Amino acid sequence: MKAVLLATCLSLIAAEAQAISRYETEGRPCAEIQAIVSGDGAAILRFRSPRDPSIQRYGRYVADRRFCHHNEQAETAFVPAADTNSCPVRECIQVDPEDNMLFRLH
């Protein structure tokens, strides 16, 4: 019984450490980048900074909120693509739960 419980706990830990795919955005049109993120659920996108092309940038982008942690929400971000400098994708942003409250009861 202890072995089954231990195996279950270890499998839950391993589920958090699943590999995430990495993609270059250079040479890819915006629709392809969006399809990659949507199909994978979450992906690391690497691209050159639009302000300084000598700087390599990267980030984790997601299909929707389900791929964010409990204290994060998916917000629109932009990455450069072959056909535009502002391809909209979603990125997990950490939020304070109190910031999302419309009002408080006293």
UniProtKB/TrEMBL annotation:
<feature type="signal peptide">
    <location>
        <begin position="1"/>
        <end position="19"/>
    </location>
</feature>
<protein>
    <submittedName>
        <fullName>Uncharacterized protein</fullName>
    </submittedName>
</protein>
<keyword id="KW-0732">Signal</keyword>
